[in-house]
Specification:
The chain is an alpha+beta fold and about 210 residues long. The protein is built from 7 helices and 6 strands. A hairpin with a 2-residue loop joins strand 3 and strand 4 (about 40-50). The chain is elongated. It starts with a helix and ends with a helix. This is Ubiquitin-conjugating enzyme E2-22 kDa-like. It holds the Pfam family UQ_con. It comes from Drosophila madeirensis.
């Protein structure tokens, strides 16, 4: 039964992933850390470094990995716990659109395979399997704005280096109207940072809600 051999395999894969120094004589740039949560082989956590040259460079992203009893026949469930503005990741739930976590999975793959694939897709989004329509539209149609938005989210949620005061000021405008910071950031990002439009819609909703209560 896979449930009996799972713990040993997972521990072996963690050790291999974290101690591999080279592949075919070439040094390995892991770009991630991986460990068990509460010594549970089915509950893992990883930290993935933002790939160099991407909007996520300098950030560190936490990813949660849930390994099923049927692993490696069935792939783990992988979700971002650090919020990220990316076409293949839900900005709300952290769910990932990655083909090897679905139909393309093979029992020959490993936790290292998954983490390398996640890091690769962070660097180069897979536009054949987009997850979020708003992020995908911005990536395709307003790419420069997408890059700035991704850097802003990386700064706010993943300790990235790129502060964008213009975006912070627009978020503060909505917060002054009573909107929570995270909702303000998400809404403005989806609306290409058109703060006047978002303010108008939010004020209208607040006014309608007040009239209903009256």
């Amino acid at each position: 039964m896979w449930s009996n051999t799972g713990p040993a395999r997972v521990q072996r894969e963690i050790n291999t992933a974290m101690h591999m120094r080279s592949v075919n004589g070439e040094p390995v740039d892991r770009g991630f850390k991986l460990w068990l949560i509460d010594e549970s082989w089915s509950n893992l956590c990883a930290e993935i470094e933002g790939p160099p040259g991407s909007p996520y460079e300098g950030g560190v992203f936490v990813v949660k990995i849930l390994v099923p009893d049927t692993y490696p026949v069935v792939p783990p469930k992988v979700e971002f716990r650090t919020r990220i503005w990316h076409p293949n990741v839900s900005p709300e739930s952290g769910a990932i659109g990655l083909n090897i976590l679905g139909k393309a999975w093979s029992p020959d793959m490993s936790l290292r395979t998954i983490l390398m694939a996640v890091r690769n897709i962070i660097a180069i989004p897979d536009m054949a399997t987009p997850f979020d329509d708003d992020v995908t539209r911005q990536y395709s149609q307003r790419h420069e704005l997408f890059v700035r938005t991704a850097k802003h989210w990386t700064h706010r949620y993943a300790n990235g280096p790129n502060c964008i005061p213009e975006f912070d000021a627009k978020i503060q405008t909505l917060m002054d109207l009573g909107m929570y910071e995270s909702l303000a950031r998400s809404t403005l990002s989806k609306k290409d940072w058109h703060v006047d439009k978002v303010c108008h819609n939010f004020s209208s909703l607040k006014r309608a809600s007040s009239e209903e209560r009256a």
